[in-house]
Amino acid sequence: MAHGPAKGIGRWLFTTNHKDIGTLYLWFSFAMFLLGGSFAMIIRAELFEPGMQIIRPEFFNQMTTMHGLVMVFGAIMPAFVGLANWMIPMMIGAPDMALPRMNNLSFWILPFAFALMASTLFMEGGAPNFGWTFYAPLSTTYAPDTVNFFIFAVHIMGASSIMGSINIIATVLNMRAPGMTLMKMPMFVWTWLITAFLLIAVMPVLAGAVTMMLMDINFGTSFFDAAGGGDPVLFQHVFWFFGHPEVYIIILPAFGVISHIIPTFSRKPLFGYSSMVYATASIAFLSFIVWAHHMFLVGMPIGGELYFMYATMLIAIPTAAKVFNWISTMFRGSMTFETPMLFAIAFVILFTIGGFTGVMVAIAPADVQYHDSYFVVAHFHYVMVAGAVFSGTAAVYYWLPKWCGRMYDESMAKVQFWVSFVGFNVTFFPQHFLGLAGMPRRYADYALQFSDWNMVSSIGAFMYGASQLLFLFIVIRTIRSGTPVSEPKVWEGAEGLEWTLATPVPYHTFSTPPEVK
Amino acid sequence: MPTNPVRATLVKLVVGAAGMFLFALFVMPPLYDVFCEVTGIGGKTGSAYQVSEAGVDTSRTVKVQFVATNNGAMPWEFTPKVYEVRVHPGEPTEAIFYAKNRTNRAMVAQAIPNVTPFGAAEYFHKTECFCFNQQPLDAGSDADLPLVFIVDRDLPKAINTITLSYTLFDVTDRVDGAVAQLN
Ligand code: HEM
Ligand SMILES: [Cu+2]
User: Fold this and answer.
1) What is the CATH number of the domain that holds A432?
2) Which DSSP string corresponds to A3-19?
3) Phi, psi at residue B148, to the nearest 5°?
4) Is B72 in CB contact (< 8 Å) with chain A?
5) Residue A517 domain flag
6) Shortest CB distance from B6 goes to which of A170, A202, A223?
7) Does A258 fall in a domain?
8) Which ligand is nearest to the CA of A380?
9) pLDDT averaged over chain A?
10) pLDDT digits (tens, 9 = 90+) for B78-95
11) Minimal Cα–Cα distance from A284 to chain B, Å?
12) Which domain holds residue A465?
């Protein structure tokens, strides 16, 4: 029974092993992270000084669009799917995912989708240039011809996400070890179970939106075209009906990771486990009924503005409950500050800042000022970068020693943390000021009064970018020549089935299910 | 019948995902239209209106303003002949817009109406409107485009001015047939 992986490239192409597929997802995601990151570097280089310096405005628009699309769909989402593949079977005592061949397929169509999307950069007309939110009519009537490739790519990655989610739900609902009731499941499994349901509910809506675009562009329908009786505002409703749950799809698994790391390094069980589960479920539910807070300025009646404002603010309550639970977990714990913990604590602080600016932009009358300014850019980078990306980085430092039986270099990792932390804040904190001072987002050039903070922001961005190359270096060095570790509990405060397995984790685990008491 | 529990979960989830796709394509757009129509949100006006016998309310006067806009690169000349009229609720009133095709090719246009404030949309009735049909015009020719409207007697008291705006779209590419007819 105990056979190892196949040899050569075939191992990766045909693998149905959840650990291999998790690894593939993680490397793919990091490659996309560097690609999207290089687009960001181009954006920040152009914005270093006012005036057009390096690129043309048309190309700038392609860069902002591609940066957003690649980061959201190529970097963040696959990273957490990779972590799910690696960890969920080990956390629930299952030998593998429930649908291993579908698992292989859902990964391998992703590189195809992104190759298709990135290839538009080299085509006539250029890459998508209508923003990652691809509002009609920019993405229909006025789109470059390459929009059809974009639509096809979105369909493929949507299919990949849906298959991945089906797999996760099928695994969690059917393959838990005997004795593991739902309310005994680790938080990461819970957050992913809920996220997977969100994905199945809204990825098809995204597919519907791009399908309507496709028909408007190529088959003469008028879903979003006022000339034929349609309405461009309908596009925004459909998009954000997907888009708002999507931001929670991004953050919920990140919450799950943090809920493991903080107890480990505080040497205390997670405070308020069941309230964490209920908070996650209510965030997921609420995320379906707040979408028009992205549309306060399209001309909604006052009742609509008020409803979406209060409903949005309501989300801050379960979110705050989670933050308080993490803080209570740390309270009076015997804390140590290894790199995963540093990232986790930074997550709690910076995500909370992002949550606060979220409540600010949720105030409909105030959003008239904030909307489509750099303030919104600052808001969502605090929740997506300091939230999701920091959490993903923490997860890699936390689980990598378990996966490969080698410890990363702690002092180098701490340097990487501090450069990321400072770089991130230097990049994005000033963007709050820029936004409040009235600098609009998605412009290739700006008025002179915005010069200073833009330069600061660009310097921070280069610093943050460099810290990610250091991260890559640390990970590769760990895998190749890190100090070997062999105790099952790599971190002595860690709890859970995954830490009962040998280190490094064997290729096949839990072929006979463990008993959970 | 799926007996294996994983299979059963798979089938349910695939059906759910397919259902959401169909929901986005076939339910959301019509639902949005119905919602806007019922609430008057978005300033969309209804289709041709049947005159009722309620009579004219001469005790009230409402100002109706007309705005004409060309969408995108639409090259026609398009203006209201009168920019503003004062009407009594319940009174059918005619207004004329003027359009001229300034190009040297036959074109077809479609005017899309919108009413501000949105709260007035459901009280603004059109018994006759050029916007109910597409407007073909030969190269260089022009036309007077008629509109007959009635402001409802139930128009909320707070509304004293209604702005009716038309945006003119070039739909020539959509209706090759209509251009052929002209020629
Ligand atoms: C307390 C929680 C939150 C609240 C109240 C909130 C509220 C809002 C509001 C009202 C906007 C629209 C602002 C505007 O365009 O004028 C917005 C934008 C955004 N939020 Fe949040 N948010 C919260 C958390 C999050 C989280 C957790 C994420 C993702 C991880 C997120 C991602 C985004 C993104 C990506 C945008 C910008 C979308 C775009 O226009 O490109 N937000 N948020
Ligand atoms: Cu939102």
Assistant:
1) 1.20.210.10
2) --PPSSHHHHHH---HH
3) -120, 125
4) yes
5) no
6) A170
7) yes
8) 1
9) 95
10) 999 999 999 999 888 999
11) 17
12) 10-500
- The pair of structure tokens assigned to A475 is 């990970």
B155 CA from centroid of ligand 2 (Å): 36
| Residue A251, ligand 1, Cβ within 6 A | yes
Nearest by CB: B20 against A201, A230, A299:
A201
CA separation for the pair A296, B14 (Å, rounded): 34
Of ligand 1's atoms, which has the minimum distance to the CA of residue A68? Answer: 41
| Residue in A with minimal Cα distance to B116 | A299
Q: By the 8 A CB rule, do A22 and A86 touch? A: yes
Residue A514 placed within a domain = no
The count of residues in chain B is: 183
Q: Flag whether pLDDT at A217 surpasses 80.
A: yes
Is it the case that residue A9 has pLDDT exceeding 70? yes
Which uninterrupted H or E stretch holds B63? strand B62-70
> Residue A409 catalytic?
no
Written as one letter, the residue type at A256 is G
Q: Would you call B151 helix, strand, or coil by DSSP? A: strand
Q: What are the structure tokens assigned to A121, written together?
A: 């950069």
Contact present, A510 and A177 (Cβ < 8 Å): yes
> What pTM value is reported for the model?
0.90
Instruction: Answer yes or no: is the C-beta of A370 below 6 A from any ligand 1 atom.
Output: yes
Q: Does A482 map to a domain? A: yes
- For chain B, the average pLDDT equals 85
Cis peptide before B80 (omega within 30 of 0): no
The count of domains in chain A is 1
